[in-house]
Design brief:
Layout (H helix, E strand, L loop, with lengths): L4 H28 L14 E3 L1 E16 L4 E3 L5 E6 L6 E2 L4 E5 L2 H26 L1 E8 L65 E8 L2 H26 L2 E3 L4 E6 L6 E2 L7 E3 L2 E3 L2 E3 L5 E4 L5 E7 H4 L7 E6 L6 E13 L11 E8 L11 E18 L9 E7 L5 E11 L3 E6 L6 E3 L17 H8 L3 H11 L1 H15 L1
Antiparallel strand pairs: 1-24, 2-16, 2-20, 3-12, 3-15, 4-6, 4-11, 5-10, 6-9, 7-8, 10-15, 13-14, 16-19, 17-18, 17-20, 18-19, 20-23, 21-22, 22-23
Helix pairs in contact: 1-6, 1-7, 2-3, 5-6, 6-7
């Protein structure tokens, strides 16, 4: 068969391409060989040394600062402002007068309540005294059993003798008159008329009876108690016309001026504390707002997994987002058992808030500053440790590959304790100074440098290197080689 010159050129080109493809295939086989070939280069072993140190386990969250002593000051009795004694930026102390309102109406209420109390007190006294009734009763008459006493004693036989004594009520007979001649005149019985019997006056007595109406007393006591309550309320309202500072602090805002009319809270004159919703803090609002950075706190949100690690009293570090070099020590005060409002809905992750107390000098801090919080949930001092990546497995029991000085390796079981952010505490299985093989950093496709063999060669071929093109084609597959040959044949024509 006669070969035409043009076909002879194509055959030569195809033959050259075939030889190049066979060489590329051999090169690819050598690269893909995992160690059985003598030309495969073995990657150096990376190791980590077991050392002693401190292992810290931490969780992080973000939140805002708030002061529990921030306070809104409001009047308990509203009215027309007669004076505002402070301005924004003034330093005030607890009990200092901040403002006053007109007292006319409040004083009138006090006077009326005092008059009502006086009347109720008088009425109670009368009710307890009761009603006294006086009656006159005649005593029964006594029987008259008295009589005159009989006269003298016994006379002598001859008419002489001692005279008897006179009775108290009787009378004695007169002695016979003596005659001047010496003879006794005949006696004559004197007749004395009987005295009339006196009738005694009737005897009477006066009896007074006092009757107390218990129902009236109870009613009067209730009226007195009501009057006392009304007076106390009126006096409180009068005192409420003067607004005083409930805490020490700095005046942050004043909502009105003298002559304006202000309302009342109807309760206490102050609302203390900054309200927190999740990691957001809302400053109090009122006629006058006082701020005080003393006792500053931070409320931060944590993921549901991290929140389970938080406990009261755990130490933390608070870093201001606006000033990354401003760090403050803190401790966990409380962890909310309820999720943050709005979290957990739809695809949003569930979060829980925790409140931490900041220690140290907080005089320059302000409510509402954003911060990042790092809480230490575990700590091991002077403990054996090594990078977490040097161990395989999960949980408290893991495995490690120990590399000896002669290059030999042993697989050992390691018990771990506190797991930090990058290191883990070793309890058993390893000693200080042991070298442990680190996990390989090869790519996920199984090749040492993470790229497909021949990819770079193929790029080189496209830039003008024929051998590179051949290697790239070999790496991709035989189909690409056929395509290259076809292209060559097309070019030959």
């Amino acid at each position: 068969m006669k070969v035409f010159p043009r076909r002879r050129g194509a055959v030569l080109v195809n033959s050259a391409l075939g030889v190049a493809l066979l060489g590329a295939a051999a090169l690819a086989y050598t690269v893909l060989d995992d160690g059985s070939g003598t030309t495969a280069a073995k990657a150096p072993v990376r190791t980590a040394t077991v050392t002693k140190g401190t292992v810290l386990a931490t969780v992080s969250g973000t939140g805002t600062l708030a002061s529990p002593t921030d306070a809104a000051q409001d009047f308990t009795t509203g009215g027309r402002l007669t004076a505002v004694k402070v301005a924004v930026g003034d330093q005030v102390t607890k009990g200092q007068v901040l403002a006053t309102v007109d007292t006319t109406a409040a004083q009138q209420q006090v006077d009326a309540a005092q008059a009502a109390l006086n009347t109720a007190s008088v009425n109670l006294t009368k009710a307890r005294a009761g009603v006294t009734t006086t009656t006159v009763q005649q005593l029964p008459a006594k029987a008259n059993g008295s009589s005159g006493s009989s006269g003298g004693g016994t006379s002598g036989a001859n008419g002489t003798g001692g005279t008897g004594s006179r009775g108290a009520g009787g009378s004695s007979a007169s002695a016979p008159a003596a005659d001047p001649s010496g003879q006794t005149a005949p006696s004559a019985q004197a007749t004395v008329p009987a005295a009339p019997v006196a009738v005694p006056e009737p005897q009477t007595t006066t009896i007074s009876t006092t009757k107390v109406d218990e129902a009236a007393v109870a009613q009067a006591e209730q009226q007195l108690a009501t009057a006392q309550t009304n007076l106390s309320n009126a006096q409180t309202a009068l005192a409420g016309t003067t607004l005083t500072a409930s805490v020490d602090g700095t005046v942050a805002s004043v909502a009105a001026k003298a002559g304006d009319t202000v309302g009342s809270t109807g309760g206490g004159s102050s609302t203390t504390g900054t309200k927190s919703t999740g990691s957001s803090a809302t400053a109090p609002s009122g006629f006058i707002v006082l701020t005080n950075p003393t006792g500053m706190q931070v409320t931060a949100n944590f993921s549901e997994l991290d929140s389970l690690k938080l406990k009261k009293g755990e130490a933390a570090t608070v870093t201001l987002n606006a000033q990354s070099d401003s760090k403050f020590n803190a401790s966990v005060l409380s962890v909310s058992p309820l999720p943050v409002s709005g979290s957990g809905g739809g695809a949003a992750a569930v979060q829980y808030s925790a409140t931490l107390q900041i220690s140290g000098d907080t005089s320059k801090l302000r409510t509402g500053l954003s911060a990042t919080v790092s809480v230490v949930t575990g700590e091991a001092d002077n403990a054996l440790s090594l990078p977490t990546s040097a161990l395989s497995g999960t949980g408290s029991s893991r495995t490690a590959t120990v590399v000896h000085q002669d290059g030999t390796t042993d697989r050992v079981t390691v018990e771990v304790g506190v797991e930090g952010d990058t290191t883990v505490q070793v309890l058993t299985g390893l000693n200080e100074g042991d070298k442990v093989e680190l996990a390989s950093t090869s790519g996920s496709n199984g090749f040492p440098n993470g790229s497909f063999p021949g990819a770079n060669g193929g790029q080189g071929g496209r830039n003008g290197g024929g051998a590179g093109a051949g290697a790239g084609v070999a790496g991709i597959g035989g189909g690409a080689a056929a395509g290259g040959a076809g292209a060559a044949r097309g070019g030959g024509r």
